[in-house]
Amino acid sequence: MTGVSSKGEAYGASAEDISPAPAREVAVSADDVAAGRTSETVVPAEDVTPRRTSEAAVSAVWSRDFALFFVARAVAALGHTVLPVALAAGLLQHGYGAGAVGLAMASSAASFAGLVVFGGVIADRFDTRKVMIGADLVRLATQTLAAALFFSGHVVLWQICALGFVNGVAGALFQPGVASTVPRLARDVQGANGAIRIAEAGAQLAGPALAGLLVGFASAGGVFAVDAAMYAVSALCLLALRLPPRAPDDGPVPRAASTFRADLVTGWREFRARTWLWGVIAIWGLYMISVSGPTVPLVATEVVQDHGPRAYGLVNSALGAGTVVGGLLALRLRPHRMLRAGSIALVGFGAFPAAVGAGLGVPAMMAGAAVAGTGMAFWSVMWSTSIQTQVPPDALNRIHAYDVAGSLALMPVGQALAGPSAAALGADHVLLVAGAMSLVVCAALLSVPAIRNLVRADAAPAAPR
Question: CA nearest 329: which of 116, 286, 321, 354?
């Protein structure tokens, strides 16, 4: 969730804390009561404590293999950000309109969202690293073919859509494996997620500018060629990766021991068994419809119409800068109840649509965007780390796939309703409502005991399943 992305993705011990020794008490979550188990947890005096920067802390995240994975993710993220610019510029240059651009983008998004759950089963049944390498090689091929089409000047929409569809399928195979790879490479999983989030934010800042330069000095075909090269770099990094062996019961599911359908059903049962997990996904649907979905297209329209494209670029840069700050905070702060802290931080996202809807000046909108980026990045790291540390490793890829699919399912609905809502109420009013609904969503997250009281996994011994 992505946030898709997004949207992320059990962990090792956390780094040394500098707070005084906390008192011990017995804490029983709602899920534990339902399952008939209890766990003794450590409850610190303060919910969030700073983390000392030390060589031990750095080594808990950075190693040769995590550095390779980090480069693979950073390069792939850069590729994701340059692709929309190249696609739009290339199709418009060849006589297609905005509808064609949307159709080409939707072909990839639809296949990804529709198949990512099956990708999670495949990632749990087979060697995750090999599946991810294969997905990168498929995307290398699709982007190379797209570059050839644009270089030749023979651009047919259905062919671009078909390549986008295959690209989305490859993404659906790749994404679930991210969830189980991070905890195998870094003992400090929260720190690793924070570092990756910062890399993604850097890609958001640099990607569109890089794509614009490439389109200006070369062509859309050149951008697709560079994008293909990025997937090649990602595949090479993953090929050089040395993953530690899994525990005996955490390895790929033997084909003879379980069917594909049984694995899919088991993953769904694991998902439903965790109230905090499906509770967040259910509430996130409201967020997609009322906040994120309308914010993206309406902010772009309002800012460009009222202040010009340059102002929109400045606002996006502020959003990316805030995302970097949020990632840095996630490296520093170690909340005892991660989803509670993440939900509180997410309140800041409402400042972005509210500032635009209120018709404030560019500096105020940039400030709102920076606050929004900070809150969203911190929430994303807390959410990803919670999934990766609370879910059994043998089902982690499937659970992550359900998370991604559930997070993305209602985004198109929110985007589709943005236009009619703006026509009926005015874009500024819709954005003000989005800002208010951001607060409602955060309140809803905090109102669920299983969400707000979930204790970080490295704060207590693992409870028996």
Answer: 321
Name which of 197, 438, 411 is nearest 297 in CA terms.
Answer: 411
Let me know: does 413 contact 293? Beta carbons within 8 Å. Answer: yes
Question: Hey, which bits of 127-237 come out as E strands?
Answer: none
- Residue 336 bridge partners (DSSP): none
User: What is d(CA 69, CA 21) in angstroms, rounded to the nearest whole number?
Assistant: 35
Provide the whole-model pTM. Answer: 0.67
Question: What does the pLDDT read at residue 340?
Answer: 95
Long-range contact pairs involving 32-38 (C-beta distance under 8 Å, separation at least 24): 32/463, 34/275, 35/273, 35/465, 37/463, 37/464, 38/463
For residue 238, give both structure tokens.
Answer: 């993953």
In terms of Cβ atoms closer than 10 Å to its own Cβ (0-12, 13-18, 19+), residue 315 is buried
Three-state secondary-structure class, residue 258: coil
User: What is the separation of C-alpha 41 from the centre of its chain, rounded to a whole number of angstroms?
Assistant: 29
338 closest CA partner among 282, 280, 287:
280
Calculate mean pLDDT across residues 385-389: 86
C-beta separation of 238 from 112 below 8 A: no
Here the tokens at position 44 are: 């610190």
| Integer angstrom CA distances of residue 19 from 38, 209, 211, 334, 451 | 26, 43, 45, 11, 24
For 275-291, the pLDDT digits (tens) are 998 899 889 888 988 88
Q: Please tell me the number of Cα atoms within 13 Å of 43 on its side-chain side.
A: 9
Distance CA 14, CA 4 (A): 26
| Stretch among 50-54, 268-272, 322-326 having the lowest mean pLDDT | 50-54
pLDDT (average), residues 380-394? 85
